[in-house]
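Justification of resources, computational component.

The compute hours requested in this renewal are based largely on the per-chain cost of generating structure records like the one below. Each record pairs the submitted sequence with a full structure-token output. That output is archived, and it is also reused by downstream analysis tasks.
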Amino acid sequence: MTTTKTATVDRGAYQTALDKFDVAICEAIAVSQASANRMAAPNLGCATQVFARMCSAGMSLVRVAPLSRWVRSDFENWDFASVSGYACGLLDGFLLFRYLIKSPKSGAELQVRIDVMNINDCSRRIELHNNLGSLADVARFEKQRSEIQDRLKSNEHFITLPDLLQIQCLNGSVLMIDGRDEILAAVGFPKSQFDAMYGLWTQHLHILPMSFYRMESNGRGTGLENEVDRSYITQTLEICAAFLTDATDCMVAHFADAADSRKGLESRFQPGPVLNCPKRLTAPEATERDRPGYVKRYMIALGKPGITRWQNDPAIRKLAEERSRKLINSPWDTELLEVGQSREFAFLRDFWNLFQECTQSCLTLDLVRDLAKSSLEQIEPKRNIVTVTYWVESYLNEVYIFQCRLLDLIKFIQRKYKKDADFTEFVNAVGDSLAEFVKVALESLVNDRGTHVHQRRHRQADPELARLTQLDAMIDILGHTDLSLVREQSRKDATIWVTTQLRHYSDLSWHLLDEVCRGFSDGILLENDRIIVPSHLKDDPDDLLKGQEHITYL
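The structure output for this chain reads:
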């Protein structure tokens, strides 16, 4: 057996190759994500999918490469076989990518390229499902393959191909109408080098004799650092970096706007290393919060009737789908009239809608809180005053909207239940108390909002913002640079103040909604989380008794 000796490399040379591949995979992933969700020709669309799989293989490769910044480990695994499999996949993907992305000379050639690939896929699936004994799937793919074969036979480009190639295409034994040697020549890769390299990789991937005949105690093939494995991994990283860079160049040639995302190790994408992820909030409040206890109970209680109706009434499901599709297809031309329904269901539906509007306001305040914090950390300093003012007014408006919706919910409950003598006294007393509680809690914010909107905006409502405005004028217009440090501190103080305010009032909004739900719960919410419907709106007068029968006491 003949062997090819590979010049050994030291750690420095290995680190250089790793850094080069790191740059290549960062730029490839960034370009892949920047060019996603585009309308493109079929071959180009398939090429972008292959490119995405190349990025996936490349990410796996850089994560198993020793000394990689992409992972944290208690030890390094210098086994060449750990990278050879991903390298094989990346190379196979590269050849298919270059084949697909090449512009066809005609529509007929384009169709042949896609159909030949589809027949190959069908044939592989037929073989797979035959081995699994899934005859129904086999029949389905055989039918699909037959349809594609018929289409190919009538294609004007296909009939110009060599007879042997036509036979191979029709039986699904080839993936591409261009041979591997032809593609290698097109990309300038010597065939002999490809054969040697691919052979070496597959020998180690499949654990064939070449991968274990020369294992050494505490050395080659054991995972411990050694010259041979280090040299092979270095060479693999260099070659794969070249593949990825070439493919990324091709992507940018077709999606020019994606070129801006190529920034070497500073390319932005996710998921990935922290340094490469787009800047985002890391604070605990940056994720959607869990709903408070009573809010959860009302969501369950108000959602049950709709879910039950959907599950038990096929006509309703069909109607809902038809109305949804109509709205999706023609949003501006669609007028959805109310569907005939019982008084009880209409009551629960309206209750649910008002409740959901309140929760939506709470979610919006959470979002304002998170976006404000993020933008204040990133916006350029000269736009600080505009940014602070914008978020102040945004959260003041959202608090006002929240108060209006929450008071509407209280009024709705009072109006619907007071007609039932069993609830009149309760809902009037509790509702009035809750409404006053909400108004007092939000009074200062609502008044500030009125000042911002109807009077002289932040000049009277927020002295700190007025101070910042004056500092900008004194420094930027009048040239009093001695105030620069004062302005810098004032900007920091305003940012801290705004983020603190937003955190407080987003928490307060959820608290108020939960308190309103809790205040009414003793009268209208059963322990099994079912809403009591007022007697004059019930479809079944015995419904309350039925509900109570299913209460489980702990």
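The CA atoms of residues 85 and 206 lie 9 Å apart. Residues 1-6, 281-285, 543-554 have pLDDT under 50 and may be disordered.
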